[in-house]
Specification:
about 160 residues
């Protein structure tokens, strides 16, 4: 099975879990965003060029189900994915802790970026002060999910990832 097919399957599975299981699951009033998590991992593991495409695709898939203007999540995740991949290129030692911290920061920045870009694009209700609280909670949830999602994403990229064990 090719890498694009595996990545597509992971994205569809993440969307399915998001829309069925996690629709009612909240941690401190906040739901995890699995497609955002897939975007961050994709960029981290396969680099800036293809990682941005994975992040954009995951965002576009999630955008279809969100009430904000189409493309806001895709654009936000593409920016975050590029930043994650570029930052990862400069790291000397990849570790699971480093990955969890990267996921925490990138996921939180994705929430804040989504709110900012969405507000600019015509959804001012996204620009709320509690977005910082939401960003911290989403980042924390995603960091805790890192040990579960990381092996799945390594399978999806087919060993092309940059994570050394």
């Amino acid at each position: 099975m090719s890498v694009p097919v595996r990545l597509g399957l992971v994205m569809l599975a993440a969307l399915l879990v998001q829309l069925t299981v996690l629709v009612d699951v909240r941690f401190f009033g906040v739901a995890p965003e699995l497609l955002s998590l897939v975007a961050v991992f994709g960029a981290f593991f396969i680099g800036p060029e293809r990682g941005v495409l994975v992040a954009f695709g995951a965002g576009l898939l999630w955008d279809v189900y969100l009430p904000t203007p189409l493309g806001v999540t895709a654009f936000t995740l593409a920016l975050i994915g590029y930043a994650v991949a570029r930052f990862n290129e400069g790291l000397f030692h990849d570790s699971r802790l480093q990955l969890a911290v990267m996921v925490f920061v990138a996921s939180g920045m994705a929430v804040l970026g989504y709110a900012l870009i969405g507000g600019i694009m015509g959804s001012p209700e996204l620009l709320r002060i509690d977005m910082f609280r939401i960003a911290l909670i989403v980042g924390g949830i995603h960091a805790l999910l890192t040990p579960l999602v990381s092996p799945v994403m390594m399978w999806a990229v087919g060993g092309e990832g940059t994570m050394r064990r």
